[in-house]
Design goal:
heterodimer, A: mainly beta, 11 strands, 0% helix, 48% strand, B: 113 residues, mainly beta, Immunoglobulin-like, six-stranded mixed β-sheet, globular
Amino acid sequence: TAGITQAPTSQILAAGRSMTLRCTQDMRHNAMYWYRQDLGLGLRLIHYSNTAGTTGKGEVPDGYSVSRANTDDFPLTLASAVPSQTSVYFCASSGDPSTDTQYFGPGTRLTVL
Amino acid sequence: SQKIEQNSEALNIQEGKTATLTCNYTNYSPAYLQWYRQDPGRGPVFLLLIRENEKEKRKERLKVTFDTTLKQSLFHITASQPADSATYLCALDILGGYNKLIFGAGTRLAVHP
């Protein structure tokens, strides 16, 4: 079982350009999440989706958008990248609403120049 | 606001000793707490969950305690091995259902032969 896959593994992006980070899970989990992880700040929630067709804003949503057209996919889009969006991005999913134990993808390392 | 504190300094111990990591929190009363392991360049991996009515939880060489009066969880690794070297994150629930976890920044553990 693949679990959660993310693509690309890493990317260098010019400021002002747009980009979509892809996330796919094969566990049929209802909930999916996007986090960014910066040194010393830990994981910060960007956006989440409790079920296909619904999305919500997390702690740091500005500059990012998401969609959840189906259960498996949860892409994250940066419409116009800025250097402060340089980070490691993790996608996660959860299939248990009683505990919300989360399963993480391998991450995407994004550098915005 | 909710705050989770984990020691930002790395913990260095000798192989065979017990490693003890601390997670302190304020301004909240979580129903449970989770611990995750993160290796460099990888996503976090769930290890253990402990509920508020459980004082202690064990899994192989791992032991977690949860003191809701002190607002603290301790994470112990007995008979530590170099392979235990990683960053360990604690996470608290803040809401019912999905989208309920907030993560600490993690503590890096280095086990030396």
